[in-house]
């Protein structure tokens, strides 16, 4: 009932995230023999929190997200007399620090190696086109797979992000995330060659022409993640294994198991690396925020991976010279 109530308020990706987070809570309730929330109390909330923290080893930032979703769920339950009024107020969110927000990212040098490998061995393929766009634009994977061929302007060199929830693709920030994103000559060349030579020409279930497509349909989110995992493995683009594994028998060698490689990356670290790279290149924060669909507070807290020395150097250029 809660998910159905939120269905028309949030993007599909957000709804999926809420479903996953609440699934952990439902499974815990089942393990505890809790079948009715009418008697659910603050003590139960505390027990669930301790279990996720101590037994499951959930990170502080992840815990904060899960408890925030649980709080919204309990608030909804209270509105339909499913739990006692005010129970949601008993959930105290943990305080996160800057260190909690730091996560792995794709470094510029590594991104260059990945793209050079694709340039040489997989030129103008789906994988090449997708990862080139993701690195250059910092798009979320959901936004990228929602692009149509008509959203790309080769002449004006940009892609247009459009919120289309009724046609199977939505943006995280809905219509507020709609924007034009500039491309450079190199990215446009790859996209042009992808469309001319290797694009399968398929139409999706809504009669639209997807920019990124497989032989059967619009590229799915799962397949997009698999591509990121697959080509971010060092053994693929560098021919080496930093984990001293036998590359002929490694369990992460099959594409379906690429995610199990300790060095493989999902699309989100590619986005984080792209954002940090733009900042390292002295792109002003408001420009990066607008391009990547980020508020400046979120950018600072979760995506700016520059060192203190890099920030100092970049600030120094804006200071007036003493005469």
From TrEMBL:
Superkingdom of this protein's organism: Archaea
Example of a GO MF term: DNA binding
UniProt entry keywords in alphabetical sequence: DNA integration, DNA recombination, DNA-binding
Keyword Plastid annotated: no
GO terms (BP aspect): DNA integration; DNA recombination
Residue ranges of every copy of the Core-binding (CB) domain listed in the record: 1-78
Domain (Tyr recombinase) ranges: 101-316
Signal sequence region: none
Name of the protein described by the UniProt record: Phage integrase, N-terminal SAM-like domain
Lineage: Archaea, Methanobacteriati, Methanobacteriota, Stenosarchaea group, Halobacteria
């Amino acid at each position: 009932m809660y998910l159905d109530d939120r269905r028309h308020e949030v993007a599909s990706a957000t709804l999926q995230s809420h479903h996953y987070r609440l699934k952990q809570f439902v499974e815990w309730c089942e393990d505890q023999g809790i079948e009715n929330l009418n008697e659910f109390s603050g003590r139960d909330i505390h027990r669930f929190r301790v279990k996720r923290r101590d037994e499951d080893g959930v990170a502080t930032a992840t815990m904060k997200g899960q408890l925030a979703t649980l709080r919204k769920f309990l608030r909804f339950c209270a509105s339909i007399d499913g739990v006692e009024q005010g129970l949601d107020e008993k959930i105290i969110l943990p305080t996160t620090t800057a260190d909690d927000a730091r996560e792995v990212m794709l470094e510029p040098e590594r991104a260059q190696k990945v793209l050079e490998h694709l340039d040489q061995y997989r030129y103008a393929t789906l994988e090449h086109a997708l990862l080139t766009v993701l690195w250059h634009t910092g798009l979320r994977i959901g936004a990228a797979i929602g692009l149509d061929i008509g959203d790309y302007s080769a002449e004006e060199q940009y892609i247009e992000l459009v919120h289309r929830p009724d046609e199977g693709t939505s943006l995280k920030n809905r219509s507020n995330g709609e924007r034009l994103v500039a491309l450079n000559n190199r990215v446009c060349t790859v996209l042009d060659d992808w469309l001319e030579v290797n694009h399968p020409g398929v139409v999706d279930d809504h009669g639209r022409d997807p920019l990124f497509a497989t032989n059967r349909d619009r590229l799915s989110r799962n397949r997009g993640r698999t591509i990121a995992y697959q080509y971010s493995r060092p053994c693929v683009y560098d021919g080496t294994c930093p984990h001293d594994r036998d590359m002929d028998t490694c369990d992460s060698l099959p594409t379906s198991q690429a995610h199990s490689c300790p060095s493989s990356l999902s699309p989100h670290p590619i986005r984080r690396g792209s954002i940090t790279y733009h900042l390292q290149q002295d792109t002003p924060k408001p420009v990066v925020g607008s391009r990547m669909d980020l508020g400046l507070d979120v950018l600072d807290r979760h995506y700016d991976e520059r060192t203190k020395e890099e920030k100092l150097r970049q600030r120094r250029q804006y200071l007036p010279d003493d005469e």
